[in-house]
Amino acid sequence: MFDLITARLVASIGDEIVGLRSRLIQALSSLGSQPMPDLIFQANIARYKELVAAETDARKIATLRRLLVEEEANYDEWRAKNPKAAE
After folding, report:
1. Which domain holds residue 28?
2. Overall domain count for the chain
3. Phi and psi for 82 in degrees, rounded to 5?
4. Per-residue pLDDT tens for 33-67?
5. pTM for this one?
6. What distance, in Å, lies between the first and last C-alpha atoms of the chain?
7. How far apart are CA 33 and CA 49, in angstroms?
8. CB 3.0 to 4.6 Å from 48: which of 25, 31, 58, 68, for a disulfide?
9. Is residue 19 part of a domain?
10. In-domain check, residue 86
């Protein structure tokens, strides 16, 4: 029971982080600061990789890997929509 609650909590926190990151990127993009989202994506991806490497719990690793894959996909999508900033 505790593991299920922990897994749901970690997933919920991860989803909240993704939502906050999306709003931050939109706000920064509206200011004309195109390179900043690029840096945020790179920092998030690097952090997820660090967390995966340091974690020992299989469920947490799975959640972190899912978040990493989502962040990399979001970064690729953002770069496709903002080719000038991706140069």
Report:
1. 2-81
2. 1
3. -130, 65
4. 556 788 889 999 999 999 999 999 999 999 999 99
5. 0.61
6. 48
7. 26
8. 68
9. yes
10. no
